[in-house]
């Protein structure tokens, strides 16, 4: 497993869940990893885990919704590692639930700012860094919520549909620069985000996984493996796709 030798990988939201799993997988595949998160303690723990496993990683603080912060991240990673080859733009929040008639504008703005503006800003600043290297690969974390609708979490679903649109459009814009841009669309994955949803209650977990044909949660590692594949040369002709990693959720 050394198919990203010496590549520099940036992962946002790497202090927890799916991003942490991707950071670990990137390192296992030979990449040097920039572990970026607004939660600095979470990022530090991920770095420790990567180093314990024999990999190379450095923690960076970033708020993906803030352009100055994202620009500073790209600059700092370039200074630390000499450039950027692959990026997993993964930071996200679920926001508040409830019918559209009860959704606050504050919740709408916050979810869109982190989930959609965050991915926009990341790509805006990563693409020039990748052009400097002669190419690269970007994977954005969308969701099954970017492919289908559901009641009760409209800002989140809208933000993830936006991530799919951004992914396809930037893929077309950067294809001739040898920069591939794809999205992963996880179903229900066993992370702190889902734990917040279900409160760890067995009946709530069962109800949450019921739309998935496999009737179980996915693991963060199952998403990370898809991200690593999309960033590898094995996916050299794959760009602009939104890949479900969802145990059959969207197959039905
Ligand atoms: P998580 O809550 O475990 O991790 C999210 C990480 O993002 C946290 O470390 C958090 O600190 C970070 N983050 C939040 N706001 C940030 C900001 N403004 N700037 C930088 N970092 C920020 O959740 P997760 O399940 O690992 O989610 C990762 C991504 O996967 C999210 O985009 C989420 O929407 C998406 N997703 C999750 C699931 C699931 O079932 N867990 C399903 C589909 C999509």
Oligomer: single chain
Major β-sheet strand ordering: 3-2-1-4-5-6-7
What is the mean predicted local confidence, pLDDT? 97
Bound molecules: nicotinamide-adenine-dinucleotide
Instruction: Please state the overall shape, judged from the principal axes of the Cα atoms.
Output: globular
CATH superfamily: NAD(P)-binding Rossmann-like Domain
Order of helices and strands: EHEHEHEHEHEHHHE
Number of helical elements: 8
Number of strands: 7
CATH topology: Rossmann fold
CATH class: Alpha Beta
Strand content range: 15-25%
- Cα-atom radius of gyration: 17 Å
Distance between the termini: 34 Å
Number of domains: 1
CATH architecture: 3-Layer(aba) Sandwich
Unreliable stretches: none
Secondary structure: helix percent: 40-55%
Provide a descriptive summary of the structure in words.
With 252 residues, the chain is of the alpha/beta class. It has one domain: Rossmann fold (3-Layer(aba) Sandwich), CATH 3.40.50. Helix content is 46%, strand content 15%. It contains eight helices and seven strands; from the N terminus they run E-H-E-H-E-H-E-H-E-H-E-H-H-H-E. Strands 3-2-1-4-5-6-7 form a seven-stranded parallel β-sheet, sandwiched between helices. Helix 1 packs parallel to helix 2 (40-52) and helix 4 runs parallel beside helix 5 (154-174). The longest helix is centred in the middle third of the chain and has 29 residues, at 105-133. It is globular, with a radius of gyration of 17 Å. The model has no long low-confidence stretch (mean pLDDT 97). Bound molecules: nicotinamide-adenine-dinucleotide (NAD).
């Amino acid at each position: 497993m050394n198919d990203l030798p010496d590549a520099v990988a940036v992962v946002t939201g790497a202090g927890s869940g799916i991003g942490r799993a991707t950071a670990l997988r990137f390192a296992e595949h030979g990449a040097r990893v920039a572990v970026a998160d607004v939660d600095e303690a979470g990022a530090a723990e991920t770095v420790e885990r990567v180093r314990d496993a024999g990999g190379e990683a450095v923690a960076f603080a970033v708020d993906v919704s803030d352009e100055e912060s994202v620009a500073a991240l790209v600059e700092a990673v370039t200074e630390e590692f000499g450039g950027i080859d692959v990026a997993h733009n993964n930071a996200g929040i679920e926001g508040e639930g409830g019918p559209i008639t009860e959704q606050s504008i504050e919740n709408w703005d916050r979810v869109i700012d982190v989930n959609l503006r965050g991915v926009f800003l990341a790509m805006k600043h990563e693409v020039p860094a990748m052009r400097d290297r002669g190419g690269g690969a970007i994977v954005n974390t969308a969701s099954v919520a970017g492919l289908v609708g559901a009641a009760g979490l409209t800002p989140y679903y809208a933000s993830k549909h936006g991530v799919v649109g951004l992914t396809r459009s930037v893929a077309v814009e950067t294809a001739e620069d040898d920069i591939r841009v794809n999205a992963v669309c996880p179903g229900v994955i066993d992370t702190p985000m889902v734990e917040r949803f279900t409160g760890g209650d067995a009946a709530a977990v069962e109800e949450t996984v019921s739309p998935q044909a496999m009737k179980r949660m996915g693991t963060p590692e199952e998403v990370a493996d898809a991200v690593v594949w999309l960033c590898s040369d094995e996916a050299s002709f794959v760009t602009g796709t939104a890949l479900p990693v969802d145990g059959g959720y969207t197959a039905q």
